[in-house]
Amino acid sequence: MAMAMAMDSSSSSPCSLDSEYAEQIAALLAPPPPQLSDDYYDKLIEDRKCQGIRVKDKNKFGKGVYADMEFKEGELVLKDEMLAAAQHSSNKVDCLVCSHCFCYIGSIELQIGRKLLLQDMGLSDKKECHHGTYSSTSEESCGAELLEEDENEDTVMDDDDAESSHNRKESCLSKEVLESLINGDLSLPYTKQFVLPPVISCPGGCEEEHYCSKLCAESDWESFHSLLCTGEKVGSSRRAALLKFIEHANRTNDIFILAAKVISYAILKYKKLRGHLEDGKQKTRLDLMNGSKFSLFLESWKPISMGFKRRWWDCIALPDDVAVCDETPFRMQIRDLAYASLQLLKDAIFDPECAPLFSLEIYGHIIGMFELNNLDLVVASPVEDYFIYIDDLPVPEKEEAEKLTRPFLDALGDDYSVCCEGTAFFPLQSCMNHSCCPNAKAFKRDEDRDGKAVIIALQPISKGEEITISYIDEDLPYGERQALLADYGFRCTCEKCSDEKEP
C-alpha cells in the first residue's frame, strides 16, 4: 500500500459549515496545550486505577505511555474503558451483547437459539442485523430482520460466503425447537455454569440496543443513545432520518455509526454542562452566548480533542488496486462518501448550538481518529466456553449431555466460537506507540468478559521505560509489516525494522 497523502488544500469543501464556522473548527482541532493534556491523562489514570503508567508527550512524535513502576512478565499493565465503541453490524447476528459494556447477555440458550433462527431467516455474517425484531414470550427484542433489498438485485456468494456456508452445517432444527430454546422452554445441560446477565431493553423503546443492567442502559442513554435511538418514543420524522443514516452506514462503512456516537457524546455533554451552569450560577442566556458557551463546548469536546486525528480521506492508505495517478479521485470519493453520511446524520440530529460538530472537517477528523487508532473491540463468546466445557466432561456425562447439545453444535458448525467484534476508541491504549518488538500486548484473560481493553506485559518492563504494543502481526516479513503500517501513516524504525531493513 502507498503511504497516505493529503488532498490538495485548494479542494473546496461541499459543506458550507466548514467555512461558516472555520474559527471554531480550528479551535476544536487544535492540539490541546501540554499542561491540559497532562492534567487530563493524570486524572484519567487516577479514575481508572492505572497508577503504574504515565502518558507523556514525545514532541513531534505525539504521546507515549511509560511505566511508572516495574512490571513483571504477564502482569496487567492497563485495563482501559472505551470512550466510544460499536459492535460491527454484521456481528449482531452472531452475538447478543450489552450495547454499553459489550458483555454477553441473556442465556446460553438464547445466544444459540437466536443465532440459528436468524441464520435460518436468511441472515449471515455478511448480512446486517437491523431494526426489526424477533419477539418471544420471555425475551424482548432480541432478533432482527433483513434490510429490504431491490427485487432485481442478485445475491452473489463470494469466497468468504461459500466458506462460511461450508463450515456451518445445514440446520435440521425446526423453528419450534429454536423458539423453545429462546423462550426458555427448552434448557440445555450445565448452562447454569454459564449464567449471563438478563436482557434489559432500551429506555427509548428501540429494538436495536440491549443492555446487561439498568445502569448500563442509563449510562448509554445519557452519553450517546438518547440522540440516536430509533424507538417508537422518538418523533416519526427523526426516526425515519436516523434509520436512513444507519442503513447507509451498514451498507457502506459502520465506522460512521461510531462517528455519530462521538458527536452525540459531545452534544449531550455540552447540554449537561450548560444546564449545570444555568442552574448553579444563574447565568442568563445572553451571558452564555457572549462568553461561556464556546468554553463549555470546548470542555465537552476535550476527551475527543486528546485523540490523534487527521481527515479520514487524507490518512487512509491507498489500496493496492488504485493507481497513484488515481489517488486524488479516490480520496475525493472517500470524502464524498463521508459527506453523504454526514448529511443523513445532520437531517436526524442537527443542533444549531453545536453546528461546528456537523461540519465535514470535524466529521472527517473524527472518522480519521478511528482509522488511525484502529482499536479492535473483542469479547470472547461464552457459547464457545460452554461447548468446550461439555467436551471436557467425563465420558458418561459427556455422552448424556451431547444427546441434547450435539444437534445445536452441528448446526452452528465452526461459527460456535464467533466472538463479539467491533471498533472502539480507548483513550489510554490509543496513546501506546507501535514497535515490531513490543514489550506488551493486548490480551484478554479468562476473567475479562466485557469490552475493556486489556494490556499485559510480554517481558519485564522497567520504571521509566516506554510501553509499546504491535499494531500488526510482528512476525511478518519486513516489507509486509511496513505496508500494513502505511495504514497508520508512518514507517516503523524500531530496532527490529532497522536490523531487517535492506541496504
From TrEMBL:
Ranges where the record places region Disordered: 128-169
Keyword Metal-binding: yes
Family annotation (PROSITE patterns): SET (PS50280)
InterPro entries linked to this entry: ATXR2-like, SET_dom, SET_dom_sf, Znf_MYND
Limits of the SET domain: 48-472
Annotated GO MF terms: methyltransferase activity; zinc ion binding
UniProt feature coiled coil, ranges: none
Acidic residues compositional bias, start-end: 146-162
Protein name: Histone-lysine N-methyltransferase ATXR2
